[in-house]
Write a structure and sequence with these properties.
single chain, 187 residues, mainly beta, ten-stranded antiparallel sheet, two-stranded antiparallel sheet, 1 helix, 35% strand
Amino acid sequence: MTTLLLDGGPVAPDAPVSRTGGVPLGPAGMVWPVCRACAGPLQFLAQIVLDAGVLALFMCAHRPGACEQWSPSAGGNLALLLPAGDLVPVPVPRGADPEVLGLGAVRAAVPAGAAAEGRAVLGSIGGKPEWLQYDETPECPSCARPMGFAAGLEEGPDPVTAMNFGSGQAYAHVCGGCGRAALLWQC
């Protein structure tokens, strides 16, 4: 079953809910992740609360296009499946540019319901991905099985603070048994 995620309005930057923007929540001692291609701190895109844990999604915003942010394995993005309990805000790296690390607005991502009219779609949870190009379901790097589709992300309602998927959309996958996650996007 697919559940649409709608813009639920502004929320605290460290709220323990499904949201876009703000700061990631992680286990105590977690260090802000960096791009494997350029070594710059990754931009935090979203956290999605799932039955399997909390999915934290990041992408490099330092050199758009050069760090292969669209690839699930090149290192220009990162998806982490974190345990759902005892998560705290991850400290922002010293000297990091807040404009690069943040989206500029923090929006709650709420399931579609009776009050859906007029709300922008931020993405979806569950179901099957609606690929813009072709099926790119990633394999789990631990068990080599196809990963399950967890969530899709749209760029967002405000072009100034939206995620940049080249006018496309992102696809997050998880392997719950291995605790692994992957992110890719197509345009």
